[in-house]
Specification:
The protein is of the alpha/beta class and 310 residues long. It has helices spanning 20-24, 44-58, 73-85, 103-110, 120-124, 129-139, 154-162, 181-189, 207-218, 243-256, 265-277, 302-309; strands spanning 14-17, 28-33, 63-68, 88-94, 114-118, 142-145, 172-177, 196-200, 227-230, 286-291. The chain has two domains: 14-39 and 152-309, Rossmann fold, CATH 3.40.50; 62-141, Rossmann fold. The structure holds pyridoxal-5'-phosphate (PLP).
């Protein structure tokens, strides 16, 4: 398997996706295959972890501690990166330990990550000084990486995504948003005139405007504008799957042979289909959808997807 340690950006394929609805409208849809960047440090996680791991190596900390849910792509990728590079990792997991761990957490434990389960209530207060002090008592001096890996290095890593292709040649570049870190990186790296669309995977995604601006400001980057958010394709909330989402993903995979997952990139696809339906693209437009990976999470969603298609 490819090692991650050197973090040299590999060649990332771009696939032209022949979806009949896009073809009929004369719009070219392309897919940036970040899902192929690494089998286990997948998609945007590869870019998010790149500089955070370097920063950790330069710190005096003995381990990395981070946060996530039972199906977190970030926890999965961090656990593997730690295993590969001989770095101790701790995952603070939202919710009580279940009798049967999710495959994500089974993998993480297998790769040596220590799991610290906390109640949903405690998890909400994960930045509180008292909670952090208790973690420090238990785990010593750790390098803390925020949920989703969107810490101080997220922009440095994710801005590299947009330099993987000729962004100026596209009329719209679209990616899914959870914390907004990936989109913030794309905004920071975008050439003048490029237009970006972030699709909120969560209900009530308005917070993303402020959080993205905060991430940009923290990296001393002036907001260049030219980006917007789609807040109406969350399908009921984080990890919620509607029939129209399941159908859109099935349609995409039938015509492209490429798999998506419904928590993030599936919703970004849905937003593009919705824009097309609303006549918001012009004939001749070229659109890039960023596949941000996370296919490991699909292990927990297959039955739900089938149920929605029934
Ligand atoms: C597969 C996948 N795509 C997209 C995102 C959204 O990224 P961000 O949190 O940087 O907005 C995530 C979450 O980090 C993810 O796991």
């Amino acid at each position: 398997m490819t090692t991650y340690s050197s973090a040299v950006v590999p060649d990332i394929p771009i696939d032209v996706i022949d979806l009949p609805v896009f073809k009929q409208a004369g719009v070219q849809l392309e897919l940036l295959r970040l899902d192929l960047v690494h089998p286990l440090i997948s998609g945007n996680k590869w870019f998010k972890l790149k500089y955070a791991l370097q920063a950790f190596q330069l710190s005096d900390c003995q381990r990395i501690l981070s946060f996530g849910g039972a199906w977190s792509n970030h926890i999965h990728a961090l656990a593997y990166a730690g295993f590969e590079q001989g770095i101790e990792t701790v995952g603070v997991i939202r919710g009580e330990r279940a009798g049967q761990l999710s495959p994500t957490l089974v993998d993480a434990e297998r790769w040596g990550m220590q799991l610290e389960f906390v109640s949903r209530w405690q998890y909400r207060g994960k930045s509180d000084a008292e909670f952090v002090a208790r973690l420090r008592d238990k785990y010593g001096d750790f390098y803390s990486l925020p949920e989703g890996g969107s810490g101080e290095w997220v922009i440095a890593g994710c801005r590299e995504i947009i330099s993987l292709f000729d962004a100026a040649a596209y009329d719209l570049i679209c990616c899914a948003c959870g914390t907004g870190g990936t989109l913030a990186g794309l905004i920071a790296g975008k050439p003048e005139g490029a237009t970006l669309l972030g699709v909120s995977a969560l209900k009530g995604g308005d917070f993303l405007y402020a959080d993205i601006r905060e991430l940009l400001a923290a990296a001393s980057i002036d907001d260049p504008g030219g980006w917007s958010l789609a807040l109406d394709c969350h399908e009921g909330g984080y990890a919620k799957v509607s029939s129209r989402l399941a159908a859109a993903m099935q349609y995409f995979t039938q015509h492209s042979g490429i798999g998506l997952e419904p928590v993030y990139t599936g919703k970004a696809l849905l937003a593009l289909l919705q824009k097309l339906e609303r006549g918001e693209f012009a004939r001749g437009d070229r659109v890039m959808l960023v596949h941000t990976g996370g296919m490991q999470g699909l292990r927990g969603m297959k039955q739900t997807l089938l149920n929605r298609l029934a």
